[in-house]
Amino acid sequence: MTELKQIIFIPLLSLFPCVLWLWYFSSRSLYKRPAVRVLGVTFLLGALATIPALFFNLIGQDIFHSLFGSTQSSHILVLLFIVGPVEELIKLLVVYFYAYRMQEFDEPLDGVIYSATAALGFASVENIVYLAQNDPMLVLLRGPLSNPGHALFSAIWGLSLSRAKAAPNLVRKRFPIIASGWLAASVLHSLFDILLVASSRWSIVFFAVLVGAMIGLFFWVRSRIRFHSETSPHREGTLLMPLRRYCQECGAKGTSGTRCANCGAFIPEPEELELCPVCSDPQRPGAKFCSHCGANIKLPARENLDTRPHFVSVTPEGQERIAYILNAEVISIGRTLNNGFVIEHPSVSKRHARIVIEDNVYALHDLGSSNGTFVNGKRIKETKLEDGCEVRFGRAHFVYRSHRTEAEKTA
C-alpha cells in the first residue's frame, strides 16, 4: 500500500507546481487563447527531453571526472559547461522543431509561452526523480524556485525564437539571434545550479543571492510579457494610416480624402504616390530630392545583395539591407509570426498580402489589407513584380530585386 501511494502521490505532487506555473504563463496571452493541443504536445516533448539530457549529462560528467577527478571543482565545471548548456539546448530543439513551426506560433509572446511549457514538462520529470529519492516535502522548495527557474531561463531563448522568426529568412541573420538567447539561458541556468550547490553546502548567503537573482529574473520576464501582450498583433485591428498628400491648389500638406486646412480645397485620393524611398514621406510632383530628409527620390541601383530574388529595406543612411528572400512558390506577408515574410509595423495587417509564382514571375496579391499594398506608388489588388520596383505594405517600404541577368533584361 505504501508503494502504491508513492507511485501515485509523488507524480501528482511533482506535477502540481508545474501545472500551476504552466497556467500562469499560458494565461498571460490576453488577446488569443494558446492552442491546448500545441501546449500539451510541447509539455510532453519537454518531459521526454529529459532522456537525451540525462544521457549527455552523464557522458559529460564522465569526461570531466576522468580529466579532473571526482572533486568539487569538477562538479562545478560539469554544471557550468555541461548541465546548463545541454538542458537548455535540448529544450530549445523541442520547441524549434515543433511549436515554432506551427501556425499557432504567431506572435512574440508565444516564444515565452511555448518555451516555458517545454521547460515545465522537463521540470516535472526532474521533480518525480528528485522527490522519489528525497523527502517529497522538498516540493515546497522546488515548486517556487527550481520549477519557475527552468521556465524563466528558457523564456530567454524563447524570446530569441520570436525575434528570429521576424528577422530576414537568412541563416546568418537568424542563427546568431537564437544562439545568443541559448547562450544567455545556459549561463544563467549554470549559475543557478552552482549557487544552489553553494547554498546547500556553505552558507545561507548564497541562497539569499539565489532567491534575489530569481526574483529579478522573474520581474524582467514579466516586463517582456507585458510589453509583448500590449503590442500583440491580436490586440486590435490594423492601425489605419491616413495618406498624406500636398494640396493641388495651394501646395499645403494635408490628408487625402479630406479638405485642405489652408484653402479648403478637396484633396483627392491619388492614383500615384511619389514617396521618398528612405523616409517614405510624400513628395511634390516632379521633385528630385526629398523635402524631409534630402535623399534622392530615384536612388540608383545598388550592388546585388543576394543572387536570389528578394526584398530590401533602405536605412535612413541610404544603405540597403535584405529584408526577405523569396524562397517559396507561395509566401504570405503580414504582421503575425506565422507569415513567411513578417513585417512588424502597426500599419501592416495580420494577413496583408501574398506572393505567388505565376508564369515563372513573382506576382503580388493584396489580401484586402486595411492600409493597402502599393507598387511604385500605385495601390494594387494584384500585379507582377519587376526588378527595382518600390513596394509598400501599409507604411512599410521595400524595394524588390529580381536579379535577372543582363541577357534576360535585354531580351
Structural overview:
The longest helix is centred in the middle third of the chain and has 31 residues, at 171-201. The chain is of the alpha+beta class and 411 residues long. The strands form three sheets. Strands 4-3-13-12-9-10 form a six-stranded antiparallel beta sheet, with no helix packed on it. Strands 6-5-7-8-11 form a five-stranded mixed beta sheet, with no helix packed on it. Strands 1-2 form a two-stranded antiparallel ribbon. α3 runs antiparallel to α4 (72-97) and α7 packs parallel to α9. Helix content is 48%, strand content 13%.
Which terms summarize this structure?
single chain, 411 residues, alpha+beta, six-stranded antiparallel beta sheet, five-stranded mixed beta sheet, 13 strands, disordered C terminus
Task: Provide a compact summary of the structure.
The chain has 411 residues and is an alpha+beta fold.
Helix-strand pattern: HHHHHHHHHEEEEEEEEEEEEEH
| Count of helical regions | 10
User: Approximately what portion of the residues adopt beta-strand conformation?
Assistant: 5-15%
What is the average of the pLDDT values?
83
Helical fraction equals 40-55%
Distance between the termini: 86 Å
- Assembly of the depicted chains: single chain
Main β-sheet description: 6 strands, antiparallel
Topology (elements, then pairings):
Blueprint: H1 2-26, H2 36-48, H3 50-68, H4 72-97, H5 108-133, H6 139-142, H7 146-166, H8 171-201, H9 204-230, E1 244-246, E2 253-255, E3 310-314, E4 320-325, E5 330-334, E6 341-342, E7 353-358, E8 361-366, E9 373-375, E10 378-380, E11 382-384, E12 390-393, E13 396-401, H10 406-410
Helix pairs in contact: 1-5, 2-5, 3-4, 4-5, 4-7, 4-8, 5-7, 7-8, 7-9, 8-9
